Amino acid sequence: MSPIFRRNAAPAPQDRLVTLIRKPGCHLCDDAQIVIEKVCGDLGVSWEPKDITQDEELHARYWEQIPVVLVDGRQHTFWRVNEERLRKALTE
């Protein structure tokens, strides 16, 4: 069967969205952003930053875990972003 017609196939990387939940002045957040920019740039994946200090719901949910990385709205990791793990999550 052609991969185009597979059921439950993962979205193509360019159809994914990575969200970085961060706060200003956070060195771990800066480190995470560098990894996200590299991986997403390599794969053509869109990404967006969200500032935890500007969103009460994000603050309540993730304050102790930042930086937090979401892939397609689901939590992928927190604190440290592993480049290979993120790349794998976006391509499998």
TrEMBL record:
Q: Which residues form a coiled coil?
A: none
Q: Which InterPro entries match?
A: Glutaredoxin-like, Glutaredoxin-like_YDR286C, Thioredoxin-like_sf
Q: Which domain of life is it from?
A: Bacteria
Q: Which Gene3D superfamilies does this UniProt record tie to the protein?
A: Glutaredoxin (3.40.30.10)
| Species of provenance | Streptomyces cadmiisoli
Protein name per UniProt = Glutaredoxin family protein
